[in-house]
Amino acid sequence: MTDQPTPDARLRSSGSLRRRLALQLVGSAAVLASLLFFAVLGFTRDVSQRSHDSILLASATSLMDSVTIEEGQVTLDIPYAALSMLGNISDDRVFYRVTLDDSTLTGYGDLPEAPAGARLEEPGYWTGSYRGAGLRSVTLRRRMSLDSGAAGIAITVAQTREGQQAELAALTRSALALGGGFFAIAALLALWTAQSSIRPLQVLTGVVSRRGPKDLRPVQRAVPSEMLPLVHSLNRFIERLRVSLTRSEEFIAEAAHRVRTPLATVRTQAEITLRRVEKPENRNSLREMIRAIDESSRAAGQLLDHAMVTFRTDSLERKPVDLQALAEELVGRLRPVAELKDIALVLEAGSVPPVPGDAILIQNALRNILDNAIKYAPPDSEVAISVTMDQSAVTIAVTDEAGGFPEAEKNALTERFVRGSNAAGTIGSGLGLTIAREVAEAHGGRLVLSTSSTGAGACVSLSFPLS
Ligand SMILES: Nc1ncnc2c1ncn2[C@@H]1O[C@H](COP(=O)(O)OP(=O)(O)OP(=O)(O)O)[C@@H](O)[C@H]1O
Ligand SMILES: [Mg+2]
User: Could you tell me if the CB of 458 is within 6 A of ligand 1?
Assistant: First the structure.
């Protein structure tokens, strides 16, 4: 029998480990993805700016190379290629300006010059707006000796930035796609990691919660090293529980055993005395005493049997048991008891294959069921015992004419110490059906209480699986 783990209302959940792990990993992936995005964006923007600047510089340098001094005067013959190389890379507008000591020689007089670099020969770059458009410009400066003395010549070449900005937008989109793709893959890996890290815990939970309530074997499944202390403590706990259960069962068996022998002596003495006593009130007291002794020794016997069943089911023996022969033998042994009440035990046993199990336990279970049928049935009635099989199990059914089970109590009757309302006046301890049920369940079978097909009594069936 497997008990479904029921959630304990006193236990509070402090959140999901898997969700926490997944959130942390996805959070780290998001941070890394944004870092990657900004790093890639910064790097590509830098490379793009440099390549634009180098073309601007090449253009300005080729203008500077075309400056000549003829007869002490500056002359400039603008090569077409110097400016057309800029037009090649985009449709942006190109401006230039050549100044000699702050007076414009040629080009756009209002085109701002870029601030000078650290040294005069170094080109200066400037980004700003000119005539309503964004602009990037380079200014090259040289000192020259003219007739009128030394003079400074500055050549500025500029280009609007629409093409460059479109290129930057495309780079941003690519960096975004790269960062997004990285995040998506990292998030999937994070979810997978969270799931697989939690997996051993789920496996262990499954292994422990699938156990039957009486399965007190240590947990032996391999677990990750971090979980070893937990499993170790769990196993120690199970072992302590097993030892303490065994001790208490042993104690009950020992106590029942010790009580039975003196009870038998007391009963014999009471019966002998009953024969000698003549006063009716004394005889009644003695009869009540004998009944109480019978109750006690039945209870002691059943407790002893129950303890034995608990021990044997703990490590169940599985040898082939011939149920037909077992039923025949038991019916033969109980026939004299049944005959005292004129009850006929009728056995219909066909040939059935053996079932794997513990013959002593099965015999004990069947004896309790037959004992009930004889005890609760009226005198001069019939108890039928049948042994049948289907594809998967062999079933022993006992049908009597004892009036059946009180319907409202039926489900509780297989619990420990529970007796039905029809049991008033009969001696019993309420353990017989408990023993029968535990034996059936230990074998993977079932105990079923129903009403006989004639409606006159009960039908109790014990089934045992064939494998
Ligand atoms: N064949 C039956 N017909 C009618 N009622 C039954 C039958 N078998 C059991 N019962 C009812 O089920 C109850 C539980 O049965 P169970 O065998 O567990 O205990 P018991 O017979 O009272 O005591 P004991 O442990 O001594 O057998 C009985 O008290 C009785 O009310
Ligand atoms: Mg009984």
Answer: yes
